[in-house]
Amino acid sequence: MQILEATCTAGVVSANGGIVPSCQILGEGGSSLGYLVIGDEKFFYLPKTTPDVKSFLTQIETLCDKIGALCDSIKAITVLCSAPASPSGPPLNSAVFTVAKAEITAIKTNLSTLKGNLK
Amino acid sequence: MKIICEKGFYKFYPSSLADIRRFFDKYGTRLVQCEDFYTFEALATLPKYSILGQSYSNLIATKTCSGSREEVMAKNLLTYNQATKSVAPIPSVVGKMDYSYSNYFVMSNLPQAFFYDNFGIITGFYGWANLDFMKFNIDQFNYY
Question: Could you tell me the residue range of the domain that residue B79 belongs to?
């Protein structure tokens, strides 16, 4: 059995500097780095899944940081009222929440991309 | 020096390094060490796998497979060609085996795999080189 470094792009497996025709892909088929396993006359492509897992965990870590910062911002909310018993205005630090929403949306986009590229 | 040829892949088992030198003096062909045997340079560097459509010993592989060098060569329908000192497609190696027979087959040249005799096409053989007389004594030919 031989194991070679390989890549998969759009369902096409390449190894050793060229395409590997009719290669079975053991995975979801997304673009990836992986291995070509050749055993006698059978061969298949095995994607590396650890880069996906690492990327996923990094996104979750970032999300946790953002939520932590959001909690701090909530604790620091200060509002002004024009007169006693009148409705309050928006929080003075409302810009922080606008930024936080944009950042969380970006993380969600990253996670969706990662899901779509599952190897 | 014992010689085994399997599916066009030659393996030499010298009793001493002097055998390798004497073989070179006679044939001008260098034998190099490969695993536990010696072989021709073009065979020693063969990978133990091939990928369909990719280069394999300066030829295009016809199979994606792995295994021993002789197995990969055979699956790609290749053999060592003594005339060109390279790996070549089996159909390009055509000739008749020229030997005499006493208790074994005696040849003055190293047998070329995939040459034919009256019994068929020879894929390999077991024998030894008598380097004193530069004769090749073959115990057994293997056929398709």
Answer: 2-143
For residues A16 and B87, give the distance between their C-alpha atoms in angstroms, rounded to a whole number.
20
Report the gap between the CA of B48 and the closest CA in chain A (Å): 8
Q: Do B66 and A21 touch (CB under 8 A)?
A: no
Determine the residue of chain B that is closest to A2 in CA distance: B66
Q: What is the pLDDT of residues A11-68, one digit of tens each?
A: 899 999 999 999 999 987 778 889 999 998 899 999 988 777 888 999 999 999 999 9
Give the tokens for residue A62: 């970032």
pLDDT in tens, B12-22: 999 999 999 99
Q: Are B90 and B78 in contact (CB under 8 A)?
A: yes
What is the Cα–Cα distance from A4 to A39, expressed in whole angstroms?
A: 11
This complex has an ipTM of 0.76
Of A22, A23, A39, the CB nearest to B66: A39
Number of domains in chain B: 1
User: Tokens 């390989």 belong to which residue?
Assistant: A6
Please state whether beta strands A42-47 and A24-25 pair in parallel, antiparallel, or not at all (unpaired).
parallel
Cβ contact, residue pair B75, A17, below 8 Å: no
Pair B138, B105: CB distance under 8 Å: yes
pLDDT in tens, B27-65: 888 999 999 999 999 999 999 999 999 999 999 999 999
Q: What is the number of residues in chain A?
A: 119
Which pair of structure tokens corresponds to residue A57? 């965990």
Pairwise CB contact (< 8 Å): A15 & B51:
yes
